[in-house]
Structures are given as structure tokens and as C-alpha cells.
């Protein structure tokens, strides 16, 4: 699958898409820092929702369904100024109309930067379109 969108602007790269698991990386650079030089919480949330949404898309029939982020929360537990962060998203609920994902974002030393939970809605396409 080739995905386009916000993740390209933030430098997010998909490392692995598996059955109920997604791994993605994002640089901590001028695109993803807040004005004080630290990783922006919104960038971490964008990384988390990207991983959850792509994971959901990999588990549904994209010919008949589309998915949208429904709810997300995040706890930012450690600051980061530079380098790369890695998100690992795992499906904890796979329903017909929603999926819930646990996303952990860590740094290069495997230290927890952010923990997030994202609920993704699954909606039937009408007449073959969204």
C-alpha cells in the first residue's frame, strides 16, 4: 500500500505493517519541534494516529470501507530535542465498526517518550465512495 498525507510533511516512515501491529519512525527536527526546541506533542499525536489509522486500513476491506480517527489521547512522558522516535501501534480491540490501538513512542535508547490510545472508526462506503 502507498500512503500519502500529513505523514510525508512530518517525515514519518512506515517500517512495518503486520497483522494488528504497525511500526513507524519520525525525525525530531525543524518539522516536528515546538518553538522551544522540543518534540511537539502534536507531532507525537500525528505519529500515533498515523500508525493506528494505517493499521486499521490494513485490516479492513478498503474497497467497501474507510476508516477515520475517532478519538485519541496521549501522555507525553519525556522530552526529546533531536534524533528519531519510533511508534509501535498494537490493536487491542478489532471490532466491526471500531478498532482501538495502543501506541508507544520511544527514542533510540528505548525510553518511553509518549503513550497514546487511539480509537479508529470503520465506516461503510456508500456507492463505492466515501
From TrEMBL:
GO MF annotation: an example: 1,4-dihydroxy-2-naphthoyl-CoA thioesterase activity
Signal peptide: none
UniProt-listed Pfam families: 4HBT
Keyword NADP recorded: no
Entry GO terms, CC: cytosol
NCBIfam families linked to this entry: unchar_dom_1 (TIGR00369)
UniProt entry keywords in alphabetical sequence: Hydrolase
Family statement: Belongs to the thioesterase PaaI family.
Domain Thioesterase residues, every copy: 36-114
Domain of life: Bacteria
Descriptive protein name: Hotdog fold thioesterase
Regions annotated as coiled coil: none
